[in-house]
Design brief:
single chain; about 260 residues; mainly alpha; Serine Threonine Protein Phosphatase 5, Tetratricopeptide repeat; about 0% strand
Length: about 260
């Protein structure tokens, strides 16, 4: 699903060029519109945060109940943890969109101030979506180590352009942000998306994702599950580089995994 606000922000921020001269009052109206959109995003972000806190409270209550009664609530706790991860992802996406609104508002306010002393005002603008700039923003944030911004930009990209050929790479980079911060459970879920959506369709990222899942399982002390995933990687790419890596890792792991 495309986010109208995200697309409009992309129009303002990423594409070069200029359009016809705008009048001062038209710019002020644009600023007011962006301020309204900003308020709506902040309200939605606060709602997501409230829901997340409610789930945290429910987790605490479930944990207390487990300690008191000794009941097996592990499955319920896993569901709650998964819900929190999803809400966190939505919050990061809203945060990214909100940062774009803030930038657009600041730019327009500066333009309005400049127009007050300028007889010939001009404003950079575009009339098409710029998915390339949005994807590039996510990659630049990843390379800079900004995990939250990476996830926000790339989740917006995936939601807005689900058929783009770079979507698997976007999912992979999102998963990598969790892996490099040692959030291995969530990383595994993100890598699984690539395997589930793109296995059998070619591309190297399925094999790489399976290797990463196995590595994450080893980090969690699940060597037997990791062996099964390595075997899956071997079967997926028997003669390719990922298959060879998986075969070597599997051979080594068989000697140490008890």
């Amino acid at each position: 699903m495309k986010h109208p606000i995200a697309l409009f922000i992309t129009l303002l921020l990423f594409a070069p060029g200029c359009v016809s001269i705008w009048h001062h009052n038209e710019l002020e109206q644009r600023v007011q519109t962006l301020e309204i959109q900003k308020a709506e995003l902040e309200a939605q972000q606060e709602k997501e945060r409230t829901e997340r806190e409610q789930i945290r409270t429910e987790m605490g209550e479930a944990t207390d109940a487990l300690r008191r009664g000794g009941a097996n609530l592990g499955a319920d706790l896993d569901i709650l943890k998964n819900d929190i991860a999803k809400l966190k992802g939505k919050e990061e996406e809203f945060a990214f969109q909100l940062s774009r609104v803030n930038e657009a508002v600041a730019a327009l306010k500066q333009t309005v101030e400049e127009r007050a002393n300028s007889p010939v005002p001009q404003l950079p603008l575009t009339v098409t979506e710029n998915k390339d700039s949005l994807f590039a923003a996510g990659k630049e944030a990843f390379e800079a180590g900004d995990n939250s911004k990476t996830r926000g930009a790339l989740r917006t990209f995936v939601d807005s352009f689900p058929d783009d050929q770079r979507v698997p790479e976007a999912y992979y980079l999102i998963a990598e942000t969790y892996f490099r911060t040692e959030q291995y459970g969530q990383a595994i879920k993100e890598y699984h998306i690539i395997h589930d959506k793109y296995r059998g369709k070619g591309g190297a990222l399925v094999g790489k994702s399976l290797l990463r899942i196995a590595e994450a399982l080893i980090k969690q002390g699940e060597c037997k599950k990791a062996m099964a995933v390595y075997q899956l990687a071997v079967d997926h790419d028997k003669k390719g580089p990922d298959g060879r890596k998986a075969k070597q890792a599997l051979t080594s792991l068989k000697k140490t995994c008890k």
